[in-house]
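Record passed on here:
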Amino acid sequence: MSFIRASATVATVALVAALLSLPGASAATGSSVFTWGSNDFGQLGDGSSASAVRGLPGQVSVGGIVDISGGREHVVALQGNGTVVSWGSDAFGQLGNNANLSNSASPVSVAGLSGVIDVDDGHYHSLALKADGTVWGWGQNSLGQLAQGNDLAREPVPVQWGSINNAVGVYGGRDMTYVLDANRALWCSGGLGLECGRAPRPEIRTPVTVPGLPDLKDVAGGRNHGVALATDGTVWTWGSNSYGQLGSGNFNDRPTPQQVPGLSNVVDIGAGAEHSMAVTDTGQVYVWGAGSRGELGLGTQTNQSSPTLVTTLSGIVEVNAGRSHSFAIGGDGRLWAWGWNQGHQVSPSGAAEVLSPVQVSGLTDIVAAEGGQAYSVALTAPVDALLSDGFDAGLAAWTVKGKLRLDTSRSSPVGSTPSARASGTNRKAGAWRSLPAEQSAACLSAWVRPASAGKKTTLLRLRDATGAGVAQLQIAPRGALRVRSDVDGASSGVGVTLPWGQWRRLDLCTRHGQGAVDQVSVLVDGLTAGQWQWTTAPVSEIQIGSVRRTTATVNIDDVVVTGVAP
């Protein structure tokens, strides 16, 4: 697609001072954290004794959480105000509260952190990405996983990871850290070489790039292997392969990343200690690697060296894993788990291994689930139905871990154009949704509120049936709007800067004209901010967002597709 400007300048728009209406809850409203399994280090976070074992989810007394991550025996949680709390084991200072390395059975604040937009952790270290693009870590550093240039055993308060200031994602493995920068390069420290795309060697104490990778959008770290999701939907792996966790069809270690055969159109990945997972855009789950503890969910305890379909699961939107147990989140907000059940981290059944997926009882509206050695942690959030311009869009303000939550239980008003929202809830940003065939003219409309100065983020996208023609509406770190062509990279300013903390109505619209010429328009609060022409087939699909884990960058509410273009 090539943009041809319809006029020499973009019209200057005076934003409407009084908003037409306000969307519902903000991104930190109504979330709940639940834990279950063993509690020998306080990792359940509910203040109970270390001897407690709980097979059913219990709520942790902590509010406003928008992201969670589970280490071996500790949990890190991001609050909506950009601060971080943690609980569980503190043997290496992984709680980050500068205490005397003492475990905590209740959430404690991580010292000195603010402006955080993403958290993750490894076995015994914790990680945070701030809105300014810097990465911070604390806890174990004996293999250089905190990138301090040394192998100091522990850091009990956050220290800056390397000198990177353009990070867009941070991911922990057992003893390594991965950082994805704005140029889609993957950086690594820690481990013994294989984990960072190098031949076996002494630990890597300062950041190095993982060579041979395409542009990435997601990463998962295992015990000694890495898994990466490319922007084109392919999956890449490297590192230790003793159990087939690289998905290469053999059991040979490999320092150089290679594409996993037989996988395409993947939208999410996960990694346990020695197994790997992927979910496709059709909701199918594929697994490979170690299976002795049932972590593959195939009903057997056999290792698999190639991706294998979990036939008992469908409609899945996200996968994740603990050490030797696994999770799948359905589009309906339900959570499925399977694998090692030593501490009842999968189910209260008492079985040592759960070989096939079982639904975790008592939980709905799941937005994230992770696990450690013998426990599990999940984040839930309600779906708030919203009404705007005659369309019951049912989209809450949640962008937790880059997901947007849609409620399709209600229909549009009689006589109106149906909204083209996806089935179910908890749909990940980045998934394309088909428009009804009759929609040759459509607007993708959303309420948007910039919440912090993060990286440039794509809000709304439209593309044609060929998949080649894409128009996207972006917001820059300071709130300026731009329209961009995916084909030639050309972009144009809209001439509007959105104010921080205030909701504005945005519309990215298309009208199919004579021949093969379409018109793309951007509206702000109902007023046209700019119009462009591009040559392509009629628009057939929409996309909300494009980057995983954009929690604190913008809140997107009330997305709806209408049949009215300006």
Observations:
- The first strand starts at residue 3 and ends at 5.
